[in-house]
Design brief:
2 domains, Endonuclease Iii, domain 2, Endonuclease III, domain 1, mainly alpha
Length: about 300
């Protein structure tokens, strides 16, 4: 072992210790924070359907069961061919179905086609008396008719100056894109693509497109008219502030495809028969126990 050195060590210069203590230490580079994951916004229709399942379970089934018991089971049946259905539906816009029937019958008389007579199978979703069995109009004659003449022909249906050019533009679009007045090809398209194709025609919205797809092909889409919208909001099936356009997509998450047709016609019929816009008949309504118009706290 080496003996310890007894001699004192020289003192450090004045201020050296303080300088050493005050010398800044090197900063470590800040660790990179992991990038925040951007959450994909939840689909509003899925979000609403999830809300109903959690807070009002079984509501849609309750509605369908109650209306089926009241009005009977509903089975899909093609109403008309797709072009006839589309033209008739345009004629129903902002008017009663019975007025649209008058305008469509007038088209048949003014522009006869000589084709095979078409049978109208309206069902309870239709608000008129039903069309007579007769050939459809000659669509080429309708498309190329002088506009003032066509306006006069469909005048009994209401809003003829607006609807006549819409009919002609619709028929022109179909003919130019498809080579004939035929919409049967829509059956081979995915449902929402078929709806988009129809709504790309000026003046045709989701309601009109959905009516054609549902009643001609049995497609699982919901046409939301004023009756469906009113009944659904009173029950709380759709949010009070939802627009009719939004409601079409909300129903895609609320109703199974196999029950979509029945849900549509039953809700419409209930709106006409009991759930009137003014003075709804609550005392005979089969849905009153879960109606938020009757009881804001209804389950």
């Amino acid at each position: 072992m080496t003996p310890a050195d007894p001699s004192p060590k020289p003192a450090a210069p004045a201020g050296a210790t303080a300088a050493a203590e005050s010398k800044p230490t090197a900063k470590r580079p800040a660790a990179k924070r992991p990038a925040k994951r951007t959450r994909k916004p939840q689909d509003p229709a899925k979000k609403w359907a999830s809300y109903l399942r959690r807070y009002r379970p079984g509501l849609m089934a309750y509605v369908l069961d109650g209306l089926t018991e009241r009005y009977g089971p509903q089975t899909w049946e093609r109403r008309l061919d797709p072009v006839s259905e589309l033209i008739l539906t345009i004629l129903t816009q902002n008017t009663a179905d019975v007025n649209a029937e008058k305008a469509y019958e007038a088209l048949r008389r003014a522009y006869p086609s000589g084709r095979t007579p078409e049978e109208h199978h309206p069902g309870i979703g239709w608000g008129g008396e039903g069309l007579s069995t007769a050939p459809p109009p000659d669509w080429s004659l309708v498309e190329h008719a002088p506009l003032p003449e066509l306006i006069d022909v469909i005048r009994p249906g209401g809003l003829a100056p607006q609807k006549a050019p819409r009919l002609q533009a619709t028929l022109q679009r179909i003919r130019e894109e498809r080579g004939s007045y035929d919409l049967e090809f829509l059956a081979d398209m995915p449902v929402l693509e078929a709806r988009d194709w129809l709504t790309s025609i000026d003046g045709i919205g989701k309601k009109t497109a959905s009516i054609v797809l549902a009643f001609c092909f049995g497609a699982p889409v919901m046409a939301v008219d004023r009756h469906v919208e009113r009944v659904s909001k009173r029950l709380g099936l759709i949010p009070e502030k939802a627009t009719a356009d939004q409601a079409h997509d909300l129903f895609l998450e609320l109703v199974d495809g196999e029950h979509m047709y029945a849900a549509h016609v039953l809700l419409i019929h209930h709106g006409r028969e009991i759930c009137h816009a003014q003075s709804p008949a609550h005392d005979i309504c089969p849905l009153r126990d879960r109606c938020r118009m009757v009881d804001k706290r209804a389950p």
